[in-house]
Structures are given as structure tokens and as C-alpha cells.
């Protein structure tokens, strides 16, 4: 085995793998072979995981292993190392013999390379010169063609031996080529000197072509118009032909229709209808000749989008600018709808989808649509609708002298005004389709304003009647139930997706969420009124103490006064059944709780009085007196009996109102039943 083979086998990676198998170490031996190996970095990294003593021990073992491997390698290949010096004898002489021929070859190659570079440079210069000559030849050819074509066209114009249409077509064909060469060489003095002659040709061609085209249009000459359109296409003057058509055919028709007198007599809708009735006849010829399609060479013309519509828009804007005024919202809304109807009818006359797309992208179309001040119109409607609602909020509980007995869904005029305003937003005489999103936003704002008003009723500085608050709660439930279906019905043709709109549902939920604060206010006021009647309970002991009254058999009148506020303000109100039941129950619980506290105080005081009297009379009473006292009811017994009758009467009144008697009332009954 040769030394090279030994080196291939005993490569560093091979030795390292061998060392790892024989003596594993705590570091990576490959780190020593890295180009950026640094001792300090090596120690800093390894001392984090191992101690310096273990690292030193592994390094010593690793060094010993390397030395042993090196000795083994030298011993195994010793013969090759000795023969290496013998094999290299005479190599220097061989190298010297090869040096001179190699130098000569290198010199020859340099000479050949220089010669080739010189030839390449010479060829490049000749090619550049040839390119310049070719360019000059092209320029000269173009100038010669300009002279030749100009002479040829002038001869055709001067002779005029052919028919006019044929002559125009030939002149146009030659003129098109002439324009091609002029555009390529227009900066040369020769071309500038030719300008007067070229202008004479252009004026002749333009004047004759325009006259022939107008004549063909007025006489409905299909062949003449076709040939003129073909010439316009050849000359690249499609837009010029469209403008000629607008001036010669469309403008006179629109001038007769769009006038202030017609606007006053027929209205804007009448003028639009007359225009749509006239246009099919006026545009039939050019439309039939310029049908879209690859096989039609006249397909590049679009007389409807580029000629007819801009002319109509220009005449309307200049002659009847008052139609765009938003000061009168009713007239503005009617005019806008009639205009959109006209545009829709005009698009149908375009016949093809491509032409409709071109129409909508035309600057005149965008300008015409933008002239309608929709934001101003919406602001006027906003002030009208929101203003009427805000005005009603100033007197939300009164019908402003309206004593009509007609049955109403709502108890308050402000609720009726809310529904009226919502209907107004989606009325056909108010709504404009581009403003749908704004009117929907206004709808949500009206609902939110109503919810805020409900929540602010208790904090109002005005004197409030509890019956008015109950009427407001009644309307809140009606609104939350009725309005979603109403709005969906109103917007079914405009926003059918509102069936699943969570925002609308949330707005109606906000209205119901405003009623708890009203419930708290009403129940608090009712409970306060009931507490005033509770003060009469304190007088019960005075009615029987030392008055020799008989045992009571009927409840006192104050019991009716206790339940009267609940009955009058809540039970007999217009509240929905479930809400009424809930409010009565809450008010009754507060009354029973307060009544229990009052009776408890009376009974405690009564018990103390009994105990005091018993101590005074103890020892004085004889046996007969004791027997008599047993046979006679005391004042305290009468007081307890009266309280029991009152509590029973209170429970019966609650039962009549359908208020459930809960644990609080049972505790009250047990309180007066105890001896």
C-alpha cells in the first residue's frame, strides 16, 4: 500500500472516529480542526459542563492516543517513507527540461491571442460603420418615400379621375403610409420643408372625408358611411369620426329635446323618455356597422359610449343645471331616480356587454353620476328625520292635544314617531340605492337614541308620573318585538340579508336592556309610597290599650292603603303581563319585608309592656282576680288579633292581584301567629 493510500485511510476523520471508539472524551475532537479554533473559547465552553481536572485528564489521554496512532502509522509505512527520497532522485532535471518548451508555448499563445483581438476590433469597427450606413440608408429611403408619396397624392388630388369615395380611400391609404415615414423622420429639415404640402393634403382629405361622412349619415347611405369609417380606421382617427357623428346627428336631436320649456312641461322623466325613443333610429346605421367581433374591421368604434352619451350629458349639464340641485329633496330624489332609469335604458341600447362596460368607464359617465350631490341630500333627510324624532323627545309623553280615540299600538307618541321615522328612512320617496348603507346606519342610530332616552328617564329633571314610565316600558317591549320584522319587511327589496344581521337584533336588545333601570325606579317609588302607609301600623296599639274596645273582627283601613300603590301604579298599568307580574312581586316582597320589620317592632314593644305590667300586678291579684283575668281578653291580645287580621287581609289582596305569596309572607304570618 502506498503512502497516499495510507493517508486516505488514516484521514483525520477516520482517526477521530477511531479515538472516540477507543477512548470517549468530554469534548468534541473535531474542534481542533476548525480554522477559527481558539484555546480560550474552547476552555470557556467546556468548563461550563466539566471541571478543569476532568478536562485536563481527557486532553492528556487524547494526546497520548494521537501519539500512539502516529507511531503505529510510521511503523506500518516505514518502507514507503524510506523509498520516497529514492524515488525523487532526478526529478529536478526532468522539470528543467520541460521549462523551456513550456515558456515558448506560452509566448506563442500570447501572440495568437493578440492577433485575434486585433481582428475582432477591426470587425467590430466595420460592423458599426455598416450599421450607421444602414441607418442612413433607411432615413434616405424614408425621405425619398415621403417625396414620392407626396407627389403621388398630389397627382391623385389634382387629377380626380376616379369617384370621390374611391379617391378618398386611395388618398387615405397613401396618406397613412406617408404619416408612417413622417413620424420616423420628423426632425429632419427636409420633412419640415414638406409640411405645407402635407398640410394641404391633410386639409383636403379631412374636409372631404368629413363632408362625405356627414352626407352619408344624413342620407342613411350605408356604403358611403362604411367606406368613411374604413378610411377613419386607416388614418387612426376613430375618435374624430365619433365626434363628427355626435355633432352632426346627436347634438341637433338633443338640442330640440333638452330645453327649459320641455323640462317645465314634460319634466326630466319626459325628456329622458323622448331621448330614448329617438336614439334607436338615430344610431341604427352606425351600430349595425360597428358590431363587436373579431371578423368586423370596424369594431373599434363605440358611438354610444364615446359620442352619444357624452353629448347628452353635456347638454343636460349646460341647459338644465337645476336638476342637480339638492335644495328640494323630493324633487332631487325624483330626478335622480329618473336619471338612473334613463341610464339603465341607455345601457340596453348599447346591446353588448363590452359596450356597457366601456360606457361605465367613460369619464362623462363618471362625471354625470358624481354631479348628483348624494351626501347633501342625505344630510337634508337626516335633519328632517332625526330632527322630527328629537323634537318629539321634548314632549315624549303627550300627544300635543290629539284626543283621538283611535286604537294605537303604542302608548307614547315618541314610540309612534320612532316607527314613523324608521318607515320614512325606507320610504320609496326618500331612499336612494347608493345611500342604503347610510339610511341603515340612521335606522340603527334611531333605535339607539330611543334606548338611551329610555335609560335616561329616571334622571330627567321633569316631574314624572309612574304611569308614564309604565307606558314607556310597554312601548319598549312592543318596539323590540315589532320593529325587527318591520325593518326586514321595509328592506326586503334592498337589503334582503338583514334577516341574519346581528347588529339589528342587538339594537332591539339594547332597548329591552334599558328597562331594568325603569323597573328599579318605579318599584322604589311604589315602595316609598307604601312605607308612608305603614306608619299607620304604629297606631294599632293605641287603638286598644286601655280603650275597652271589643275584640277586632275586621282588618283596618290602612291595609288597603298599603297595597293601593302596587295595585294602582303597577297592577292596573299597561305593562305586559309577565313584566307586570314581576314588578308586582318585587314591590310586594319589599312591602312584606318592611311590614314584617314594623310588626316585629310593635310586638317587641308590646312584649316589654306586658312584662312590666305583670311585674307590677304580681302579688296584688287575688285568686278571683286571676280567674277574671283568665276569662277576659287583654289589650295585648286584641292588638295581636288586629295585626293578624291585617296580615290576612294583605295576603288576600296579593292573591287577588295574582302575586305569589313567598317565604317572606309566610314568615310574616308566623310572626303575628306567635303568642
Structure description:
There is one protein chain. The chain contains 28 helices and no strands. The protein has 675 residues and is mainly alpha-helical. The longest helix is centred in the first third of the chain and has 69 residues, at 91-159. Residues 1-11 and 626-631 have low confidence and may be disordered.
Task: Please outline the helices and strands.
Elements: H1 3-9, H2 12-22, H3 39-46, H4 52-76, H5 78-87, H6 91-159, H7 164-184, H8 189-219, H9 222-235, H10 238-257, H11 260-265, H12 267-289, H13 303-319, H14 329-350, H15 353-361, H16 363-370, H17 374-393, H18 413-425, H19 436-456, H20 466-490, H21 502-513, H22 515-534, H23 540-544, H24 558-571, H25 577-617, H26 623-631, H27 635-657, H28 663-673
Helix pairs in contact: 6-7, 6-8, 7-8, 7-9, 8-9, 8-10, 10-12, 10-13, 12-14, 13-15, 17-18, 17-19, 18-19, 18-20, 19-21, 20-21, 20-22, 22-24, 22-25, 24-25, 24-27, 25-27, 25-28, 27-28
Question: Could you write a compact summary of the structure shown?
Answer:
The protein is mostly helical. The chain is built from 28 helices and no strands.
The percent of residues in helical segments reads over 70%
- Count of helical stretches: 28
How many β-strands, per DSSP? 0
Rough outline? flat
Structural class: mainly alpha
Biggest sheet: strands, sense, closure? none
The amount of beta strand, in percent, is: under 5%
Q: How would you spell out the order of helices and strands?
A: HHHHHHHHHHHHHHHHHHHHHHHHHHHH
Radius of gyration: 55 Å
Distance between the termini: 126 Å
User: Mean pLDDT score, rounded?
Assistant: 81
